[in-house]
Amino acid sequence: MTRPLWAPWRLEYVGSADEQDGCIFCRALEGSDEDGLVVHRGERAFVLLNKFPYASGHVMVAPTRHLGEFGELEADEAVEIHRLASQGMGALAQVYEPQGYNLGWNLGRIAGAGITDHVHMHLVPRWAGDTNFMPVLADVKVLPEHLHETRLKLAGAWPA
Fold first, then answer.
1. Is the pTM of this model over 0.85?
2. Does the active-site annotation cover 120?
3. Which of 45, 46, 144, 151 could hold 80 in an S-S bridge, CB 3.0 to 4.6 Å?
4. pLDDT digits (tens, 9 = 90+) for 60-92
């Protein structure tokens, strides 16, 4: 039986994403890795934590180039994004030992994209029973550690 990944706290973010100044991905690249929650920088793509995660360790992989259309990714950008996602699974496995992953692209607002002007892939670690009563009844997401601590752990586990 299919069980939904219920995330009511994201509704506020999705509704206000277009009100933010500039692109969150491009801003993350302009500042320090710590301030931008950047876990890893590649040549043509990078990895950063989601500020409104579905689960601890939820990262996004995006091209360094500001790009709003998936079909306009160059082949080497697409390859690097998927290579970084694979490396991210390794880092997440080392740090958090998830039992599975959700990996994918939300292209367009109707498909659930909170940011539509810079394509990005989501990598969400999953565990048995990782959705519980807190988000459903209290509209609260319990994360066991601060995002900056998560960033440090994943960056430290990233392959050289």
1. no
2. yes
3. 45
4. 999 999 999 999 999 999 999 999 999 999 999
